[in-house]
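[[Local backbone shapes]]
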Amino acid sequence: MTESFYAHSKDNEPPDRWQLLEEHLRRVAELASTFTVPFNSDILSRVAGLLHDIGKAHPDFQTYLCRSGGIDASEYDDPGKDSHPNHSGAGAILAYEKWPNLVGKTIAYLVAGHHAGLPDWFGGRDSLSYRLVNEKGIADAVRDYTKPYFEGLPPQIRPPTFAMYCCNQNAIAYHLWVRMLFSCLVDADFLDTEAFMDPDKYAQRPTFPPLPELKSCFDRQMAKMAQDTAVTNINRIRTDILAACRSAADQSPGLFSLTVPTGGGKTLSGTAFAIDHAIQHNKARIIYVIPYTSIIEQTADVLRKHFGPENVVEHHSNIAPEREKESPALTLAAENWDAPVIVTTSVQFFESLYAAKPGRCRKLHNIVNSVVILDEAQLLPPELLHPCVEALNRLVSDYDATVVLSTATQPALPNLCQPPREIIPPTASLYEQLKRTNIVFPKAMSMPRDWTSLAAELVEHDQVLCIVNTRPDCYALWKEMPKGTIHLSALMCGAHRSQIIADIKKRLPRGEPYRVISTQLVEAGVDISFPVVYRALSGLDSINQAAGRCNRNSESSEPGTVKVFIAPKPAPPGLLRKGEDATRELASTAGFIPDTPETFHRYFEKYYSSVNDTGEDWWMEKLVKNVNPDGHVQFRTAAKEFQLIKELSVPIIVRYDGNDKMIDRLRFAGPSREVMRALQRYTVSVKPNVATRLSTEGRIEEIHDGILVQADSTLYSPNIGLDIYREVYNPEDLYI
């Protein structure tokens, strides 16, 4: 009788209901190969699929499956181990033996990492160099079983042209190519395993309509919106912007810029470009990348309205749990981005491109041949600018993506693989046509204001927004203002901030008095409009984003006023200070105009030149330097270190809006995905030493490992949020 080997068992099911190893290997190989066809790597991914679980043929692993499935394992060689052997190293070793070159090493990375994540080459017991030597015994035990899988495989496998490594210049392509291959392998493995182990869940995975059908839906909604929109000058300009975007969609794929002043309708016009371009050039999907979770839901709601709620997948940390309950199929699609329209954050997008874990990498192959809209492109973190730009370069040059840099303040990004093609023609003169504000700088750029005199000036306006650089500044100025003034900062939880912004949108059009002191959290994408805005001196991009909250929809025929002032203290040292200094230098030059594309370009050149480290040395050291000729990459270390938000913070769950029962559920039933996601909107992050102080004072408590909850009922204030100001504090301990 031919001996059977199994990939997966089911509890209390007989072996004839288990998945055969051969069946799993060949299915994963076929699926992974299909995924990699768009970037010409299908032979290599097929081999990785055939070998990824080959170590499961080891007798110890088969014994483990029988034991875990409740089956008598006496017919196997049972060494009495309590755990199964590490099965992922065997295929890695056998591949490197078959192809003792960079191709074999690449397959080894994929196979060895398909559970724990892409490994480093150098390091300890988890490194690939260690495992290729020390897990050889497992490979030897399955060598005979493996022979049929090598039959018919070519003696040599050539990577696609862009991933050839004959010179150091091409070494830059290697690490992302490996991640793309890894994405195809692990997604195929996840899907085939799920289809066998949880067929009901697998059956819930949605099938979406093709993009031409979505375009018809989008066009119908756009036509209806045009019919219902009043004929005004600003709406005429928005119509012209939309027409320019649709006209540009015929251009060949590549890198584009969409430079439109705030209020010009970038979201829908950019989406119109994306859907038309995708159909014209047979692209797979549209991926909308947004810098802040605070505005992602707003954008997702707009896209759902135009494409249908069942066709837009949100993927970010702050998605409402009730939305996941309403659309479990969309939640499944978020795992691998197998959907026509994705809305996600910069953190999710870029950190995935440098990730090592299977779950994080799983979506990468679905970025291939997509249209990626990078909203507010000027907010790419300067300290990681080089690796972010390099990722965009590779997506455009190697993976057939079209990337759109969309912003009102187009940055002068260095080292782009090609000059971006501007979608809006220069003859449009948008900044002149859409000028709705006058930005006024102080005559004396070195003369700071005191909070008391500034507050007295703000009170002269019934409706006014004042944006400052830090939380302490926001609190200090708010304390000088009369009762009823709104304090708005990230010391308030997300649910609280959303309620305040909704109240602003409701009361401003009614002409009610409304004064707001805020940090810069209102600047990017928040759809509010004040007649007067004050802005503390900062980066020129921030000042212009603040101007986007003034006379946003031309409510007044006269330009709104944006008044820049010098705060009592400069911004904290670091990137904020560099932006402030670059603006001060530009504003001191003759003929300075604060709101033109040319000025933004000059500003970003000055700003980026002042940043000492844009991440190039890190990128070279971890991911490029040792590729040629050895293929040595520190995948896992690089993934841990690549973080768009690097500031250490401690989340505290606050008591707000009647969430006490939910907190009690967390306390007594323990953390669950559902509860933690529901409480996400009720968290405030502070620096570790602030959290330590609050804990020492008994104002917060740790109810589970690492989960801090407000204990003092007076700690959270309806006026300022988490009230860390009642005690003496060090302003440097606070977040911006």
